[in-house]
Amino acid sequence: MVATPDGLPPLRQVILKHGLWARKALGQNFLLDLNLTSKIARQAGDLTSHDVLEIGPGPGGLTRALLLEGARRVVAIEQDSRCIAALAEVANHYPGRLEVLEGDVLKLSGTDRLQAPVRIVANLPYNVGTALLTRWLSPPAWPPFWETATLMFQKEVANRIVAAPRTRAYGRLSVLAQWRAEARVIMNIPPAAFTPAPKVTSAVVQLRGLPAPRLAADAAWLSRTVAKAFGQRRKMLRTSLKGIAPNLEDRITSAGIKPTGRAEDLSVEEFCLLSEALRRS
Q1: 232 C-beta neighbours (distance < 10 Å), count
Q2: CB 62 within 8 A of CB 31
Q3: What pLDDT is stored for residue 2 in this prediction?
Q4: Does residue 134 contact residue 106 with C-beta atoms inside 8 Å?
Q5: Can you give the pLDDT at residue 29?
Q6: Which pLDDT score, from 0 to 100, does residue 195 have?
Q7: Which is nearest to 189 in space by CA: 11, 20, 67, 29?
Q8: Where are the domains of the chain?
C-alpha cells in the first residue's frame, strides 16, 4: 500500500473498494491528489479553532485534508449514499471530528450542526455550485454563519464572481458576491487533476464576509433587481427592468442612474441605490 500523510488508504483504493465511480448526474469530479487537496485546505487558513462545512465530499479527499490540517470539526453533506461507508472510515480515523449528513444540500443546510466560528471549504458539485453560493450570499441578516468560504467552481463561474463592471464576465454573481464579501481567485486547477477529467479548467475562489454590506440594501430586492437587469444585459435599464415597479424611469432617475444605462455599467453600490429606489416605490 502506498503511504499517505494521514495513514488512510489511497483514494484510488477507496474508490475501488466502495465502487465510487463518479456520476455525471450528481456533478461529480473527484480530486484524488492529496497534495492538492492539502493545498486547498491550507488556503482556507488556520482551521484549528473553526468548524468547517464541506459540501459533496465524495470519497473524502478534501475531507481528509481538512482534518489533517487541524480542522476542529468537519460537517460534510453528501447526497450519494455510495460514499457514506467510505466517509465513515474517515470519521473512525478522526473520532469526534467528522459528522457526515446524507442528503440533498439544497434541502439540508447543516448549519444547526456547526459551532461558530465557521469556514466553508468545498469542491462544489458543478450542478449546484451557483445555487449554493447565491444562498450563502443572500440571507436576510448579515453577517452570515460563515467567516470565509473557499470554494471550487468552473473557472468561468469563478471569473464571474470576481468580475468588475463593464467587463464581459460581470453579472448577477459579481454583484451579490462583492456586495457583502471580498472575493478573489486563489488558484486554478487543470482538468487532469480530476477523475474523470472535466472539459473545463476549475478555479478556487475565496470569499471573506464583510462585517457589513458595502451599502445598505434589502437582500431580496437587490437579488431581484440584479437578476432582472442582467436577464437582458444588452438592453437599457428602462427596458430590462420593465414591470418591476411603477413609474420605472422616475425611480431609476431618483437613484442617480440614467434609464438609458445598461446593467453591466452599474457598480455594486449603484445597484444597491437602484434596488432601494425600486423597493420604496
Answers
A1: 15
A2: yes
A3: 62
A4: no
A5: 81
A6: 82
A7: 29
A8: 11-209, 219-280
Amino acid at 108: L
**For residues 223 and 138, is the Cβ–Cβ distance under 8 A?**
yes
- Amino acid at the residue 32: L
- Placement of cell 425600486 in the chain: 278
* 279 burial level (CB within 10 Å; 0-12, 13-18, 19+): middle
> Residue 122 carries which side chain, given as an amino acid letter?
A
Q: CB within 8 A of 279, min separation 6: which ones?
A: 218, 221
Strands (E), 124-228: 148-154, 181-189, 194-195, 202-209
The C-alpha cell that represents 138 in the structure block: 443572500
Count how many residues are written for the chain. Answer: 281
Q: Which residues of 111-140 are buried (b: 16+ CB within 10 A; e: fewer)?
A: eeebeeebbbbbbbbbebbbebbeebbbee
What are the mean pLDDT values of the chain's consecutive 10-residue runs (281 residues total)?
82 92 78 92 97 96 97 97 97 98 94 97 90 94 96 96 98 98 97 88 97 96 97 97 97 98 98 98 82
Q: Which CATH architecture has domain 219-280?
A: Orthogonal Bundle (1.10)
CATH 3.40.50.150 fits 11-209, yes or no: yes
Identify the DSSP state of 7.
Answer: S
